[in-house]
Amino acid sequence: MTKSLSDCPACHGQIDEQHQCGRCGADLSYLHTLTHEMERLEAAATHAVAAKRFEVARTFLAEAAQYERTPYNVALAAWIPVLEAETAHEAAEAEAEQVQAEKPSRLDSVKQFFSRFTRGKDGS
Ligand SMILES: [Zn+2]
User: Fold this and answer.
1) Which letter does DSSP use for residue 1 in this model?
2) What's the domain of life for this entry (predicted)?
């Protein structure tokens, strides 16, 4: 738990699992609601990243950061561009493989070229 949602806003005392500040007795149940909402947004962002829905993940993280900038949501936000670049690279590779699968004749001609070359070298 990070500072802004774990300290009493009235007296900066530590808040425990009670919905009341141990020092000044302020009713802090709304902070728990905010924490849960923030955690829900972080979880939603995590699922979106796993599904490679990066724009959706960014939206959830921006919302979560409005409640609190946790090390987790900051790190996840920083990680998204890296994952995006990786995903784009994977997509390009998959496309190249698909072209190869759709046009096996092209691959065959390459193979024939190399086998000719190899035969010549072997002297067979
Ligand atoms: Zn307090």
Assistant:
1) -
2) Bacteria
Give 17-40 pLDDT, tens digit per residue.
667 888 898 888 888 888 899 999
Q: How far is ligand 1, taken at its centre, from the CA of residue 33, in Å?
A: 17
Whole-number Å distance, alpha carbon 14 to ligand 1 midpoint, is: 8
User: What pLDDT sits at residue 120?
Assistant: 58
> Which residue in 84, 82, 80 sits closest to 65, CA to CA?
80
Q: What is the DSSP string of 43-84?
A: HHHHHHHHTT-HHHHHHHHHHHHHH---HHHHHHHHHHHHHH
User: Can you give the pTM of this predicted structure?
Assistant: 0.65
Q: Which of 28, 1, 23, 27 is nearest to 12 (CA)?
A: 23
